[in-house]
Amino acid sequence: MNTTDQQSVCFNDIRQAASRIQDYVLTTPAVPAETLSRSVGADLFFKCENLQHIGAFKARGACNAVLQLTDEQAAAGVVTHSSGNHAAALARAARTRGIAAHIVMPHNSSAAKIAAVRGLGVEPRFCEPTAAARAEMADQVAAETGATLVHPYNDPHIIAGQGTATLEFLQQVTDLDVLVVPVGGGGLASGALIAARALQPDLEVIGAEPAWADDAIRSLKAGSMQPPERFDSIADGLRAPLGSLTYPIISQLIDDILPVSEDMIREATRQSICQTRLVVEPSGAVPLGAVLANGSRFAGRRVGLIISGGNAELDVFARILSSSE
Amino acid sequence: MNTTDQQSVCFNDIRQAASRIQDYVLTTPAVPAETLSRSVGADLFFKCENLQHIGAFKARGACNAVLQLTDEQAAAGVVTHSSGNHAAALARAARTRGIAAHIVMPHNSSAAKIAAVRGLGVEPRFCEPTAAARAEMADQVAAETGATLVHPYNDPHIIAGQGTATLEFLQQVTDLDVLVVPVGGGGLASGALIAARALQPDLEVIGAEPAWADDAIRSLKAGSMQPPERFDSIADGLRAPLGSLTYPIISQLIDDILPVSEDMIREATRQSICQTRLVVEPSGAVPLGAVLANGSRFAGRRVGLIISGGNAELDVFARILSSSE
Prior knowledge:
Two copies of one chain form a homodimer. Chain A is α/β, with parallel strands linked by helices. Chain A has two domains: about 210 residues, 3-Layer(aba) Sandwich (Rossmann fold); about 90 residues, Rossmann fold. In chain A, about 45% of the residues lie in helices and about 15% in strands. Chains A and B meet through helix 2, helix 6, helix 12 and helix 15 of A and helix 2, helix 6, helix 12 and helix 15 of B.
């Protein structure tokens, strides 16, 4: 499978993004997971985007988007709607450039997510918790202020920025046999695929998607974008459907996407915390869940897992930890 | 303050240890903590020994000790008594050299600690949970098997091995103003002091000790080794008293030792987990607790914290997380 000319993003965009954002994001560690490797029978390496600024890879794409605004665009600020990590990522990226960020959040967003945005000096604008209400308020803010809308994943600058995580990872750990990436809206996975196909064409790239948010699996099977059917996976960062830019990249370049059950997502979150001492949010543990549930497929191989983020309510972690054994 | 000739370990021992153990331990990441830095008003850097193999810096010293055994000594194996991270560290170090490890553990050791040792292929020998019973059984095993006793901290090879964490840290993050290290038995702190005084003599080095396990603070004040008064700090890795080798190093080289309350240890554990996405055991969070409790002392400075480990029972983390706010 090769990159095709239909794609909105090419490897050079990722390389340029890496140099553009390097002073604003961390080169996150790639850590071998010795104990888990022994129990799985494979060599596992964790790319720790949970240790990225704001606790998620989203810092990369948001910086790449904000840094490419013209001065005129920048003066009018940026706007997005998000209940998750993209909200904090865009607020932080705007802060690094000294421009305004307008963040529309559902009024039932978690206290921690709201506090993260406020901690970056931005007072969120609250809306009803529906997709329509969020988009409507964001459009309204854009119209009033002239701010540039920065979509959480369906944007070439965002995809290129997220691809820098994989660019780094493949430089840090050579000779991986397989890379496992979480699939939600598809920004991270798209960037990973473009980087991997350019740097190491024989690398198997496997997506991992909650079985309760399996629109990508169904879309690839159907050959066309399929809507989400439910929105209640504990992996809240992966509930969003693929977008018009990410669907073609993923459908053309990915080797496979594995569904991961809710129980296995919890188990992988627990094992990440107690075996690798990394705080991984449920969405970030989905790749490990795919490995744990499909051991024979990964046995004896060098497996890279992108740990997308580490933000969840403390009580989510407390419940997952106290329900063990 | 300079290194004196009374010391059992010199900087060259640490440099040699680093090269001896480099294929057996991780170069752990040193991560800037952006959000915590903003709230504290200082630049905080975490040296992530919780991401070390077996989840603690103890892997370093144990490897350094085991790799220095003669072939004849090695053939008879090693023995220690430990209810904590040193048990797993020595079991792992022995495994890497292919020799026997005899691990004496109190029968009331936590299930996770026992499982960690078993996971490394060693069946612990259980004893009564008293210091006398532990030492007696370890001595007995040594007499029966000829195994070499490897003390968790009062051993020059262990101190030199632990010093490699600071050697790495000061190479990874230059221009630190102050380094904060946890103080328990003093192996990690002694190694840190010897490395720091050699590499960066003007670096302030501050110890952090649970107020409920403050024998080092009392010993420095009294000018002689003082016994522990209680053994119930949540920071279980720091309950041990200084040893005959670590007391002189620490008393001669350290700038200050700050006591940290139990509440502040819990708060620092919680903040590490939710603000830096690192699983830090209570003992490993004591340096952050010292910074949080003494903000003005660290304000505006570049502060390095050695995060010593990330192993605790899941229910300890669950309780700490669910008791927030």
